[in-house]
Specification:
alpha/beta; Rossmann fold; formyl-coa transferase, domain 3; 7-stranded mixed beta sheet; 14 strands; about 40% helix; about 15% strand; elongated; CoA-transferase_III_domain; Crotonobetainyl-CoA:carnitine CoA-transferase CaiB-like acyl-CoA transferase; transferase
Length: about 400
């Protein structure tokens, strides 16, 4: 049994924020039906690399889901969606504000049919406010939240965080909001409307930066890999690469000097006597540490740091990360069979449940793969389903090939 077995989710989202949220819900056991326009499908389907006509990036955040190709702009398509919505526990969408109202599938319309529904909207800037009408991809949100001005090397151009951090932040924010609302629903039977955005979700993660600004007006600027309040706490160059060192308190600093670097005399240097002094001399610390680290490769220094009890590690390229034995031992690389992509690998589940372990049960669906199944579950006859295909209301990309129906 999984934590969310029996929970019904309708997924109207695209790209990453919403699909990430519904991926985790599906990993928890929720029955997630992804509603997709056709023939192109959800926008991330057009991202390569492609294998046998299917995009690999789409496969990553859309595992454990069903896909229904449905024309929401048609009256019959809307009717089908509303039938699905009558029994849905959760609906998630990331259209621009106002689009669901035009389609007649907004929260108020669904609530009239299903008072217990939890309906979550994810957008670039939120449903209200002067920017609510603007589109907002991750790169836009990274600019607005100030992330690009606090990332990179000092004096360099604004730099994007290496992953789609605002998308993932919004997906995670929607996720915990939905789970909180679901607990409320279990207690009271009441559904509710949730509204979050890429900008707000990312901004909420600026914990230390907001503290410094509210206290003294400090504006966070790029520091490379350095911490703004602690040192040694960054990546340092070694003979063959870089190693991270986190020795921000006095005990760790002394262990670093005495055991890892074999420089016990540094402890008594007046310019290093406490954290404040070390912060004042952060450039000198880097210069001195890197002079020592240049004598040996990264792997040597990781061992020395471990020996000293000082947190540290290699600075990997992504391929090195995925091939690290610890990552593999933690089941963070999962292999599975996709009906079109063949043998694929996906990122595993990062939280381990002792009683109800989450599962990657099925690969991401092709566009409209479950259209027939979902329509039949709604009680439509074979003739009615065939008619919907012929009228272009529903779609299955490989319907003809699979011997089911009438993709148009």
């Amino acid at each position: 049994m999984l934590p969310l077995d029996g929970v019904k989710v309708l997924d109207l989202t695209q790209f990453l924020a919403g699909p990430y949220c519904t991926m985790v819900l599906s990993d928890m056991g929720a029955d997630v039906i992804k509603i997709e326009r056709f023939p192109s499908g959800e926008d991330s389907r057009r991202l390569g690399p492609f294998i046998n006509g299917e995009g690999y990036p789409f496969a990553m955040p859309n595992r454990n889901k069903k896909s229904v190709g449905l024309d929401l702009k048609s009256e019959k398509g809307k009717e089908i969606f509303l039938k699905l919505a009558e029994n849905a526990d959760i609906i998630i969408e990331n259209f621009r504000p106002g689009v669901t109202k035009k389609l007649g599938i907004d929260y108020e319309s669904i609530q009239a049919l299903n008072s217990g529904v939890i309906y979550c909207s994810i957008s670039g800037f939120g449903q209200t406010g002067p920017y609510s009408h603007k589109g907002g991809f991750d790169i836009i949100a990274q600019g607005v939240t100030g992330f690009m001005r606090m990332t990179g090397e000092p004096g360099g151009r604004p730099a994007k965080v290496g992953i789609a951090i605002n998308d993932i932040a919004a997906g995670a924010t929607a996720l915990y909001g939905i789970l909180g609302a679901y607990v409320h629903k279990m207690r009271t039977g009441e559904g509710q409307y949730l509204d979050t955005s890429l900008v707000e979700s990312g901004l909420a993660w600026t914990v230390w930066e907001s503290a410094a600004y509210f206290a003294t007006g400090e504006i966070p600027m790029p520091t490379g890999t350095r911490h703004r309040r602690s040192t040694p706490y960054q990546a340092y160059r070694t003979l063959d690469g870089y190693v991270t060192i986190g020795a921000g308190n006095q005990k760790l600093w002394e262990n670093l000097c005495k055991v890892a670097l074999n420089r016990p005399e540094w402890i008594d240097f007046p310019q290093f006597k406490d954290l404040n002094k070390r912060m004042e001399n952060i450039e000198l610390i880097q210069e001195m540490i890197e002079e020592v680290l240049a004598e040996h490769p990264t792997s040597y220094w990781v061992e020395k740091l471990d020996e000293a009890g000082v947190p540290g590690g290699p600075v990997y390229t992504y391929d090195q990360t995925l091939n690290d034995p610890h990552i593999q031992a933690r089941d963070m690389i999962v292999e599975m069979q996709h009906p079109k992509l063949g043998d694929i690998k996906t990122i595993g589940i990062p939280i381990k449940f002792s009683k109800t372990p989450l599962q990657i049960r099925t690969p991401a669906p092709w566009l409209g793969q479950h259209t027939n199944q979902v329509l039949q579950d709604l009680g439509l006859s074979e003739e009615e389903v065939k008619e919907l295909y012929q009228e272009g209301v529903v779609y299955d990309k490989y319907g003809e090939e699979a011997g089911v129906n009438h993709a148009k």
